[in-house]
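User: Fold this; tokens only.

Assistant: Input:
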Amino acid sequence: MRYFFLLLLIAACIGIFVAFIVPRYHVVQGLQAEVASYNANLATATQLEHSRESLIAQYNNIQKTDLDNINTLLPDSVDNIRLIIQINALATKDGLASLRSVDYDTSQAAPAASTPSPATNSPATDNLPYGQFVISFQTTGQYANFLSFLSDLEQNLRLVDVTEIDFTAPQGSTTGTTPSPANGMNYKVTLKTYWLK
């Protein structure tokens, strides 16, 4: 009888352990895993905050002139009017005529942040972190002056790629005179510039 009572007590202890303690143990294990995950996320957030503060400190140490140069090199918008004024200033400085027949796609000119990329872009360029803006214009002048203009355009801070140049001889006057190379050549230039999305 005494052994039976001991066996019954042991069975009751095992039953209580299985019925109450094991489920609670699993709940505690789940909570411990959740706490560990939160601690890992907290450590990552703390590390990101330190990185952000370090980057802000580095950004604040950059000279204003350097920041202006970076914004000129790769602006965060097309700013087509300023680009045209800048190119026209280079052309006139180098002895070329003022720009004329300026042409560009207005849908590329000032895309809003909430609108999709311009329709002229292909799906491959939609995924790029930068946009492309194509502009063409015409000018007139001596070939040496045009070469000087291209050199200045190349050394300019604004990042541009000249994609096409067309040369045409100047038209004769209405009096029937023959056009002279001394009067200069007509140039049509197409270039591509970039901006950060």
